[in-house]
Amino acid sequence: MLNIGCHLSTSKGFMAMGRDALSIGASTFQFFTRNPRGGAAKAIDQDDLAAFLLLASEHRLAPLLAHAPYTLNACSADENTRRFAAEMMADDLARMELLPGNLYNFHPGSHVGQGASAGIELIVAQLNALLTPQQTTTVLLETMAGKGSEVGSTFRQLRQIIDGVERKEKVGVCLDTCHVHDAGYDIVNDLDGVLAEFDAVIGIDKLRAIHLNDSMNQLGSRKDRHARIGDGQIGLPALTRIINHPQLRRLPFYLETPNELPGYAQEIALLRGVYRD
Ligand code: FE
Ligand code: FE
Ligand code: ZN
Asked: Which of 7, 107, 208, 228 is catalytic?
């Protein structure tokens, strides 16, 4: 069975997200841990969460993917921004333990002129300060498109981060199809080659989730503009090969395409139709 969902709005609570997911034929979903531009997280409603956990186990919704706010920049040149990033991530990871055993994805960050290796050191330091042996959440580094001074647009940089992390069993990678395409990895014409490179550099066992998006821009454009499935430069045939690839087909897929619920329902139906059970 294809395990697929989409990004849902967190504002109405977990039960509403669970119901929305089921209503569009999804078997999982992604949500922001708080306002995507950062700031204080809303207190979790315990009754809502308990009802959701029941719904999730009934319908075998899992794993869920929480997405950190975009403003979280663990490798900023500014100490206050880094402290804010560490506080947000610590708070997010504590809250994630109320939903045990799920995934938490973050953008490695932008080094803003310090250079990638200085950025990587700062990201490693934050993860080493926050990851604990008790946590049940796996923290995922997202593959980035490489706009501006983004860290994480090459498999090599992600490997360097993981190399520095002490609790390697607590980290993995979320591959965003729009981002890797825009970063120059040719998943349209050479998916096998890209996955072989991922395996050689990072290890395919570290790949834990896929953000399934088409891209408005060309291979290597370093732009990061998501398109609807089949409406972009990646296209439906390549995305069909991705969801069916033997090394990918059991992973959870999350759509982050420009859609409201009815559009997501259509994309999920389309992808279920081309998935080979
Ligand atoms: Fe992201
Ligand atoms: Fe993404
Ligand atoms: Zn993106």
From this structure: 107
pLDDT over threshold 80, residue 152: yes
The domain in which residue 16 lies consists of: 4-274
CATH number at residue 234: 3.20.20.150
Position of tokens 């560490």? 86
Q: Name the residue among 263, 233, 239, 234 with its Cα closest to residue 253.
A: 239
CA angle 61, 59, 45 (to 5 degrees): 65
The predicted structure's pLDDT at residue 249: 98
Q: How confident is the model at residue 270 (pLDDT cuts 50, 70, 90)?
A: very high
Distance 47 CA to ligand 2 centre (A): 30
Structural domains counted in the chain? 1
Write out pLDDT tens, residues 36-61. Answer: 887 788 888 999 999 999 999 999 99
185: closest CA among 150, 229, 220, 227? 220
Residue 245 bears catalytic tag: no
Q: How far apart are CA 166 and CA 164, in angstroms?
A: 6
pLDDT of residue 39: 79
In this structure, the dihedral spanned by the alpha carbons of residues 3, 4, 8 and 12, taken in order and rounded to 10 degrees, is: -40
Catalytic status, residue 70: yes
What pLDDT was estimated at residue 88? 96
Query: How many angstroms from the chain centroid is the CA of residue 11?
Result: 19
- What is the longest distance spanned by two Cα atoms in the chain? 50
